[in-house]
Amino acid sequence: MSALTSAPLADPEPVRIQPASGRPGSASPASGVIVSRIVIYGMLLLFAAIYLIPLFVMLVTSFKSMDEIQSGNMLALPRDPSFEPWAKAWGETRVGLTCAGIKGYFWNSIKMVVPAVAISTVLGALNGYVLTKWRFKGHKLVFGLMLFACFIPFQAVLLPMATILGSLGRFGNSLDDVFGTSFGFGNPTVNLVFVHVVYGLGFTTLFFRNYYEAFPTELVKAAQMDGASFFQIFRRVLLPNSLPIIVVTVIYQFTNIWNDFLFASAYAGSGDVMPMTVALNNVVNTSTGVVEYNVNMAAAIIAALPTLFVYIVAGRYFVRGLMAGAVKG
């Protein structure tokens, strides 16, 4: 026992740790990152292809002749590209009972969308300004009710809105009897502007209220001390700093109003006052013996061009504007 205790202890050998790359059967961190990137970008490319293939088919089909469409592959590029289907869709194709193309209905949508977007954006900005910088007793209840309006489905307001529009139309007839003009009351385009302003007001108020909630109240108080009025503060202090949220609101409202079909078909679904979406539906459903797929595709792309243009021009500001008022401070 004493011999064991008196024997000197040997120094332990140093432990050598091999790098991960030197161990057999193990992958390096760099190779793992490469594999994950390949998987991520591969999935993104796959989903992008799934999303863009219908647009590609529409585009190439719109430049093909009917013989080429009926005898060739729909994914093949046109052998002899032609703008004739586009010209026919714009000015000659049959829409219901007329053969004047979709150009008139395209401008009907422009005349409806521009004022509806402008009015709803301005009113939403004013509401957000009042609910954040000029708070009154019950302002939370008012905002809650407007927020609740955002969740009311389109179908629930069809009959009540039709009743209101009918009353406005009768009021317009009375004005026409007295003054010789209805001042737009009862006009289908004006009716659609009114409907989209009312329905979109909850969303625009929500956007601007959240954005102005993070806006420094001290600037508003300083302007008040300098003698600025309600509208002067709004025009000179808030609006110049509201470009991001204005872009968000315009994109959102423009897209929703331009693509609307339910309200358009319910309140302006016939005659020369139809918006673009209703006219496009009539183009596709009108049959003259042969379904002209090239003309239908060209008409659909023309109908989508305004929203594509808006997203291309201002799309990069959309997420930036949404996030601008998300974090306070």
Would you give an account of this structure?
The protein has helices at residues 2-6, 29-62, 66-71, 84-91, 103-133, 139-149, 158-179, 188-213, 217-225, 230-238, 243-258, 262-267, 276-285, 293-314, 316-324. With 329 residues, the protein is mainly α. The radius of gyration is 31 Å and the shape is flat. Residues 1-6 have low confidence and may be disordered.
Strand elements, count: 0
Number of domains: 2
Distance between the termini: 75 Å
- The share of residues in extended strands comes to under 5%
What's the CATH H-level homologous superfamily of the largest domain? MetI-like
Number of helix segments?
15
Residue ranges: pLDDT <50 for 5 or more in a row?
A: 1-6
Task: Please outline what is shown here.
This protein is mainly alpha-helical and 329 residues long. The protein has 15 helices and no strands.
Summary keywords:
329 residues; mainly alpha; MetI-like fold; 2 domains; flat; disordered N terminus
What topology does this entry show?
Blueprint: H1 2-6, H2 29-62, H3 66-71, H4 84-91, H5 103-133, H6 139-149, H7 158-179, H8 188-213, H9 217-225, H10 230-238, H11 243-258, H12 262-267, H13 276-285, H14 293-314, H15 316-324
